[in-house]
Amino acid sequence: MINVPLRILLVEDNEADILITKRALAELVEAPDIEEVQDLSSCRDKMINFVPDVVISDYNLPTCTGLEILDLVREIDPTTPFIFLTGTLQDEELAANTILSGASGFILKKHMNVLGEKLKPLLKKVVFNLNTKADLREQIRKNRISVNQINDYLDNLDSDNKEQRENITRIKTSLRKFNLGNEDEDYDRNP
User: Fold this and answer.
1) CA R_g for the chain
2) Extents of the domains making up the chain
């Protein structure tokens, strides 16, 4: 069982497939938070307001295709893992194109009886990448703290001469460039 809570966006129009998928996810993930939609506008809303960890989408939907859903997801957040769950991808070339288009994987609906088994490695990869992202976010946070501390130190230096003040200004400008993720107003301090 995956102990990390996952936010899952399920893009599906078939009620039976929704129930089977939700049951498989509940068996795999300790506390899945699952939202379901059937069209592009609802998907856009959930991508913005629900911010899923992974999107699982059918390929054929009543008002759009899975590739349109994939394009929308990539437009909003290119890092969100995307899994097709479909009965359409019988053609190997079509399956390859979905991966080349940016899908993380696909599962054929003919395997719905073993859906959990098919989803497990894909979801484990999602969790692994979430942990990697968390580590990266923590490292970025620590780097920002270090840069802020250096800035604070520079602000408190007793710069009596013009050359020292110019050097401090250059250092602070370099720090701003290094720390691109912070807003510039965080560094608007007098040299």
Assistant:
1) 23
2) 7-136, 137-187
